[in-house]
Structures are given as structure tokens and as C-alpha cells.
Amino acid sequence: MYISGILKKTITVTSLFLAGITVSQAQTMTPYSFSFDSGNGPLYFLFILAFLLLLVALLLLSKARRIRNNFRETKKTGPSFLKEHANSLSSPQLKKVLRGRRTKKAALSLLIAGMLLPASKLLAQEQGGAPGPLLSQAGVIITIVLLLVPILLAVLLLIIKLKKVFTQLQNKLNTEKANQLADYLSNLPEEDAAALTKRQEALDYQLSHQELSGNQLPEDKKGLLQINGAPGLPIVAVKKKAQQRPNIDPELSKLVLWYLGCATFWLLFGTTVGEYIGIKFVAPDADHISWLSFGRLRPVHTNSVFWGWASLGMIGLAYYIVPRVCNTKLASMKWGWYTLYLINASVILGTLCLMAGINNGGGEYREYIWPVMLLFAIGLVATLINFLNTIARRTTKEIYISNWYIVSSIIFTIVIALVAYIPYWQNGLGETIAQGYYMHQGVGMWFMLFTLGIVYYFLPQQLNKPIYSYSLGILAFWTQILFYTLIGTHHFVFSAIPWWLQTIAIVGSAGMAIPVIAGTTNFLMTFKGSIYKIKDSYTLPFFLVGIIFYFTGSMQGTAEAFRETNLIWHFTDFTVAHSHLTMYGIICFFLWAAIYAVIPRLTGREAPQITIGAHFWMALIGMLFYTIPLMYGSTLKGLLWKEGKPFIDGVVLMAPYWLWRAIGGSLMWLSHLFFAYNMYKMLSPNYVVDINETAVEKLNKDNPNLLKPIA
Amino acid sequence: MDFFNNHKKLFGTAAVFFIGLTILVAIIPALNNQQNNAPLPNAPALSADAKKGKAIFISNGCVACHTQQVRNVDMDKVWGKRPSIAADYAAIHRTDFWRNTATLMGTERTGPDLTDVGNRQPSRDWNLVHLYNPRAVVKESVMPAYPWLFAIKKEPAKNDIVVNVPAAFTRGVEGKIVATRDALFLIAYLQSLKQTPLPDGSTAPAFLYKSTKQPASGGAAAAVELDGKVLFAANCQACHQENGEGLPGAFPPLKGSQTVLGDDLEKYVGIIMNGYDGLPGFGVMPSVGKNMNFTENEVAAIMNHERTSWGNNARKVTPEEIKKIIEQVKSNTQKQ
After folding, report:
1. Inter-chain contact A359–B59, Cβ cutoff 8 Å?
2. How far apart are CA A392 and CA A30, in angstroms?
């Protein structure tokens, strides 16, 4: 059975190859129409058989040649061969030889005859079938196959038998050699024996295990070792503690922490809503309240995680980064707070409006009406001026690349908001074109560009080495602007907007490969040589996941933009899976990495490792559970639509994948609870009394002179 | 380099680069599109009721799941007779100063496309039951229910529109379920969504990416027998249900129906083509066949599916005899 399976496979593969050669097949894109029923079928079959037999013959020939060479070699052997072998003996073997030099051994010999002749006979038989019209008849084919089965079995047996013969032959030769060696060893000349004794001593040599340390007790003069006094069985691997707090202005520290705290609130709020609407796909009658209906809550979810969580998180981190890399103070603390108030107000008002049924008319991520979004835009302008003023008074000569990304991102987003929200235009398809531009620039120029700036600061910082290539960062920067700006309308491929505009968007999407590959290469090369640090760090795994999804998620976006893939995936939940792979896999993971890196520096408190681990793994696994079934199901749904099946069949088909999505979403949501808890642990001022710290303080108080530094 | 170390030059260049591309790829095409497209001359304007209904459609975020665009690809043929063109959206202007234009093209098709739903599903009764709870008529549906568009009245007034929701979906309300004005506005909007035919002489853009599947054999003369089950699912099942039993109090059963099983094919074909309002206790049936431009092959396939399913066991009809009856039915309606 096994053999026939292999044969079948070989036959199909080879016949596909053959079929590919014929012109008629090569020109069409349809599956290959090879069939054993066709007139040429048996011919192919015989051809393959002949081919196989040729292979067998070649195999046997090479084996025979090798044996012959071996024979010749044995004839030629001299003292050099024997010495070589004697030197390659292992220590125990040497022991035996040297001990029993006087003992003689009897030689054994075996005689085996080979038989090669039947092969030629079989080969002769093989060529029997001549091609003709008769061959296309099923009965004839079956007969031929029936005849061939025993022949093939015979060939197989022959191969096995021959292998056995060859092995025996080889063994005979080896035994002969062994006899010679034994003879040589038993009559070993004195000087050779001395050499072998020396050799044995050398092989027996072992280190004393104290060559490097000497006999003194270990001493850690520089405090490099951290030895846990009470080792137990740890539940999570112990990772490195965050660096000591650098000199950060407490005012700035407070501002950054408030940004990140608000961001965490919006993450919890937004994903709770997301979780709920995900459940509604499985249980659509979960409630019947207008404010909680799916159509109203969906934009609440997307907008609160966009403008609340991710935006506040990014800006908060930027308030830390921009003054740092400029090596100066923030221009205005007050304006930083204004931005925080304005954005929070915008998201609160926007959420209420959406739930009350007041929205902008349906464009994705543009559901807030313009007066609400205006607050957000004013906040951005305030931050932009603040950052530009900070950069203007920098004490470094160059502008670090993080600031390129962050400041440009804010400038672009203000432009995007203006283009999309000025309430005096966009009739008819003008709305659609502006919408395509707006939503994709929102994603690519706001979230992606900004987050890349954050990564360019925190990744080298956490790896404690400079970024691999500044030039790659610059290349990615300009190409991102060039290509990303073009790709908006790829959300409306095959729609009524001009065909050429769709084509530009598709070309731009393909061009995105350049900045994405440049960025990924840069990050991975920065990682290179420091990969071992991942196991010691709880921030680097978040970075690594972010980098992986930066590449895969972005390239998936390119793949989705093509016309052929649009046929299957457009309008399905594939888009939803893609946006979670990118907004969650890239943006959220990078933000978490940066947040876990920065807050301990500001507050001096770290979150428990076990809950950070829980956050990481649940978020990662949850996201995979969320996206992979959704992508798989959507592909099936797209194919089903293409076949022209009733629409409701697609809904029925998606049901299990929607369930998986809800399960994955629940895991993600749970991971956010852990994240919120970690935030609490890092921010909470009521920490447990530190015994060491308190003892020192007490001593200091009781006896001020005791702890004074000497001289 | 000085350029990279001067923040004004650096960020100025980036901004100019981005704004320039924005103008080229978004602003100019958008302006160009909104200025150079006019609505089709025969496209009716939205009625006052439909306009209010559109506002309800927008505020409830229906666009999250329903597209309104027929793409120029073969698989979208089921949603309209021709691909959507710029002119179809040209009449849509800003909703008001506060809210943007709602072309409602959408990017997700979790629910069916609505470009032509006014032709495909015009029945008010069906739409009302469906809005109250979609699962009352389509049991696999995941669409939200909109009970807040309905009122409960012990004794409905004379001109109140009472919705006959199956008992399993009334959630134990006491009294009659009555459609509010908002529900009726929304349905007016849905009923208004019809693809405007192109003016005579102009050809619609082609549907691309045609499926390469060829009819099995026999050439063009022997038309392939259409799949009645699929046609029934697309056009009839929403009301009469997959099991042919209809919904008591709303849509009559086809299982065991005298019209379906009997020999009065003229009446039967007439109902399919022109609709019906003759059954006491049931809603009005729209002229499904006329709206969807059914051919005799399609009508015959649907009839044969109905006549031989759910235990129904009547003689199959042929497209040839149906063709004659369709012509007759058409001329009858013209005479009236």
C-alpha cells in the first residue's frame, strides 16, 4: 500500500510536469486536465515506469562502483592505513590493546556470492508494451497495471536484496581490514606502543574544574550578582528590574502619567464596548435598547480606542520623548494639560453623541460630528506648537528621528482633519474620495507614523544600544509619506470612483513595501546580537510582537489592495481582522511596550511580573484567536459570494467564526483588565512598606551621623 | 546636513510634501467628482418621508453592515441590474451644516446591499416584521432588532398600522404592536432605494470578472435549468420561509396551497409577476416578478420548486407554457 502510494504521488507529480510542457495546457490557467482515460495516459505511465527503472539501474551501478573501489583500496593497503587506524582508537580500546598485546586473535572470514543478472531480464521485460489505440481502453489499462504491479514489486525486492548483498560484501571487506589491524596491533613495535601509551594518557586527561577560579572563595566586589536568599520554585521567570528613575521634572512626570492613565481608561471602555458588540454577532437579541444597538456602538468602540486610548497613549509618551531627545525642558506644561482636557472632552462628547444617534453620516472613524472633532484638532494644534517650541530650544544639534516621526505625524493629522471636516464641500462621490483619504491617513499618518517615532526612541533605549541605521529610518520616513498618502481609495476598489484613482491607490499600496521593509529591517537589526535580552526583559517581548505584526500586518494590507484579492475579501470581515492585526498587533503592543518601559522610571514602581506576563500572553493569543478564524471564514464567505450562493448562506457560514472572534475578543478584553491592574500597581501611591528602605530611614533619623558619607 | 538639523526646513518640507500629495490625490479628484457629475435625469428625488427615514437610517448606523454600491464585478450582479456610477450619488449633498454628506456606500457587507432593495423587497408588512425582530422572518439573521421604532397599544386607532409579529418574538408584550411614524419613514426610505435605469441609448458599464463556468453541454438552444431553490431563497423565502409555511397572520403558506398545487397557472403566474392582495388576514404581496424582471425560465424554476417541495407534489411546468402565460398576464394588466 505504502509503495503504491508513493508511486501514485510520483506519477501525478511527473505527469503534471509533463502536462505542463504541452502547449495547450500551458496556455490556460485552469487546473491541469491530465487523466488516465485520455489516449496519452498509458504512454505517460509507461514513460514514468521506464524512468523509474532507469533510476534504479543508475543507483545499482553507483553502488557496484563503490564496492569495486573499496576492493581495490583493500588491495592497496599498507602500513599508513594501519597506523591511521591505530591512532584513531579510543581510550578504552587502547587500554585493551595495550593490556592484551600478547593475546592472539583468530581471524574470521565469510564468503558471499552476489547475483546481479536478474535485473537485466526484468529490464528487458519492461519494454514489452507498445503504444497503440488499444491502450486507451480501460480494460487494457487495467491489465497493464495488473501486470506492472508484480513487476514493480519484483524490482523492489531486487533492490532490497541487492542492498543486503552490498552490505554483506562491505562487511566482509571490513572484517578483512580488521584482521590486518589486529595482526598489526598484536605485533606492535616498542616505539609505537610507547606512542600509544602517551596517546591514552592524553585522552584520559581531565580538567580539575579549578583552573580559572583557583582555590579562593568567590567575591563580588562590584555588586554584579543578585542572589535570591530564599530560592523557591518561581511561577514566572525573574526578569530584570527597570532602570532607576532618571531626573525627570515631577511636573512632566505627572502630566505623562495622567495621559497614560486616561488612555488606559479609554482602552478599558472601548474594548468593553467592542467585546459587547462582538458578542452581539453571536447573540443579536442581547438587548433591545436603542443606545446600545450595534450600529451605534460600533463607532463608539472604534472611536474611543482610536481617539481615546491610542491617541492619548501616544501623545502622553511623546510628552516624555520629545523633551528627552531635545535634552531640554518642555516648552509649556500648561498647554500639555489643555490637550489632555480637550481630547478627553472630545471622546466623551463624541461617545454620547453616537449613542444618542447623532453622527456625521457614516464614514468610518469620521463618525464624530465636526464640532466634536474640532476639540480634538485644537488639542493637536496646542501639542504641535508645544513640541515645536521645545524642539526650537533643544540643546542637541540634530533632531532625533523620533521627533521627525512624531511632529510630522501631528502636522499631517491636522491637515487630514481639516480636509475631512471643513463643512463646506464633499457632495456626492467627493465624500467617498475624501473618506478614503481620511480614514487611511488617520490610520497610517496618525497612528503608524507616531508609533514608529515612539519605537525609534524606546527600542534602542530598552536594548541599550543605538538604532541600527539612521538612514533606513529616513528612507522609511519619506517613502511612507510618498506611498501612504496615495492609498486611501483602495477601500473603494470597483466602486463608482474613477478607475485611475483606484489604480493609484493599489500602486501606492504596493509601494508601501519599501517603508515597511526598511522599518522592519531597522528594528530587527537593532535587535540583532541582543536577542538574548528578551528573556530578561518584560518590555522587549511586546516590542518583538509589534515588529512582527508591523511587517505581516502591513504587508497583508498591500496584498488586500489588489483587485483580485478585493474580489474575495472586500466587504467581508477580513477587513475587520486586518484592522485588528494592525491597530492591535502593531499599535497596541508598541504602546504597551513603551508604557511598561516608561512608568517605572517615573514612579519607581513596577507591576508584578506575573500579571504583565498574563497581559502579554492573553493579548497575543486572544488576538490570534480573533483574527485567524475571521480571516479563514471571510475567505470562505467571499468564495461563496463569488459562486452566487444566497446571501444568507454566508451569514450561516460565518456563525462559528464569529463565535471564535467573541472568544478571542474576550481573551483580549481580559488581558486589558490585567493591564489596568498593572497600571494601578505602577501608579498607586500606597505601596507596601519596604523593610530595607524603612530600616535605613529609621537609622538615619535616630542617628544622623551614622549614615553620613565618609569624607 | 543643515537641512536635517533645521526643524523649520525639515518639518516645512515634510508638510509641503504631504499637502501637495493630498491636493493631488484627494482634493482635486474629490472636487472634480462633485462638480462634474449630475444625477440621472429620470432619478426621482427623495420624498419628505423617505428623507426622514434616511436620517433614521444614518443615526442608527445601518451603514456599518449595509453597503449601497453595486460594484462592477460579476458577483455583485445580484444587487442590481447595472454597476453603480457616479451619477447615482451626485444628488446627495451635505445633510446639514453639522453633518457630512451621507452617500452611505459602506465598506462592510455583513447584511445585504441595499442599492436596489426597494425593488427586491418592497413589502411594507415584511419590512415591519423584519424591523421589529429580523429573526421572526429570517431565522439565521444577526441583524439587530429595532423594537423602539414600535409602540404597544391596547386598542390601536383606526389608521394605526398593526404589525403581526409571531408570538415567539413579541417578548410577552400585551396589546398590539403598532408601527411608529419613524418606522414608517424608515420603510419609506428603504422602499425608495431603487436603481434608476440609465436613459435610453446609454450603456451601463460592464460587470467584470465574469465567472468562467460554462453550461455543461447541449449548446445555447437547450437552456440550462435554473436552480429554483436558489431563486426561491433570493426572492420568496424572506416571507414564505424556507419551509414554505409562511408566517401565520403575515404571510400565507405555500405548502399545500391550492394556488400552488392547482391548475390555474394564469392566477399563479399573475401573483408572482404582479403581486396579490386577495387573502384575508395576510399582507399585500408586491409585484416581485415585475420588479425583478423575471424571465419565463426563472418563473418556471421557482414554480417547480414550490410545486415539488415540502410535500407538495404537482406536475412540473415548462418555461414554454409559462412564457405564453406571462405575455397574457402582462397584456391583462395593460388593459386594466
Report:
1. yes
2. 63
Nearest-angstrom CA–CA distance, A13 and A2:
17
Strand order in the sheet with B176-179: B150-153, B176-179, B162-163
Residue A236 confidence class, pLDDT cut points 50, 70, 90: confident
> Would you kindly state where each structural domain of chain B is located, as residue ranges?
7-36, 48-192, 228-335
The amino acid sitting at A284 is P
Using DSSP's 3-state secondary structure scheme, residue B163 falls into strand
The predicted pLDDT at position B224 comes to 58
Cβ contacts of residue A595 below 8 Å, gap of 6+? A260, A313, A317, A679
Q: Please name the residues between 30 and 69 in chain B that touch chain A, using a CB distance below 8 Å.
A: 30-31, 33-34, 37, 58-65, 67, 69
Average pLDDT over residues A261-270: 97
Q: How many CB atoms lie within 10 A of CB A425?
A: 16
Query: Which single residue is written with the C-alpha cell 514513460?
Result: A47
* Inter-helix orientation angle B296-308/B265-274, to 10°: 120
Instruction: Report pLDDT for A212.
Output: 81
Residue B331 scores a pLDDT above 90: no
pLDDT of residue B110: 95
The pLDDT tens digits for B39-97 are 999 899 999 999 999 999 999 999 999 999 999 999 998 899 899 999 999 999 999 99
CATH of B48-192 given 3.60.110.10, 1.10.132.30, 1.10.287.130, 1.10.760.10: 1.10.760.10
C-alpha Rg value of chain A to the nearest Å: 37
Q: Please tell me the distance from the alpha carbon of residue A223 to that of residue A235, in angstroms, as a whole number.
A: 26
B222 and chain A in contact, CB less than 8 A: no
Query: Could you give phi then psi for residue B244, rounded to 5 degrees?
Result: 70, 10
Q: Which residues in chain B belong to E strands, given as ranges? A: 150-153, 162-163, 176-179
Rounded CA separation A114/A235 (Å): 65
**Which phi and psi (to 5°) does residue B66 adopt?**
-115, 120
Q: Note every long-range contact of A203-207, with CB atoms under 8 Å and residues 24 or more positions apart, other chains counting.
A: A203/A90, A203/A91, A203/A94, A204/A91
CATH 1.20.210.10 fits A256-694, yes or no: yes
ipTM tops the 0.90 cut? no
Chain B residue numbers with beta carbons less than 8 Å from the beta carbon of A407 are 7, 11
B15 at interface of A, judged by CB pairs closer than 8 A: yes
Longest dimension (CA), chain A: 113
| Summary count for chain A: helices (H), strands (E) | 26, 0
Domain ranges across chain A: 2-27+34-202, 256-694
pLDDT tens readout for residues A321-344: 999 999 999 999 999 999 999 999
Please answer yes or no on whether A288 and B112 come within 8 Å at the CB atom: no
CB atoms within 10 A of CB B316: 11
B84 CA: distance to closest CA in chain A (Å): 6
Question: Which residue type is seen at A111?
Answer: L
Q: Please return the burial class of B267, using the count of CB atoms within 10 Å of its CB with bins 0-12, 13-18 and 19+.
A: middle
Question: Which CATH number does B228-335 carry?
Answer: 1.10.760.10
Nearest C-alpha in A relative to B31 = A430
Same fold? B48-192, B228-335: yes
Average pLDDT over residues B151-159: 92
Q: How far is B90 from chain A (nearest CA, A)?
A: 4
A450-473: average pLDDT: 95
pLDDT given for residue B274 in this prediction: 85
| Three-class SS state of A397 | coil
Chain B residue with CA closest to A374: the answer is B98
How many CB atoms are closer than 10 A to CB A35? 10
**Alpha carbon distance B319, B306 (integer Å):** 15
φ, ψ (nearest 5 deg) of residue A120: -65, -35
Query: pLDDT category, A406, cuts 50, 70, 90?
Result: very high
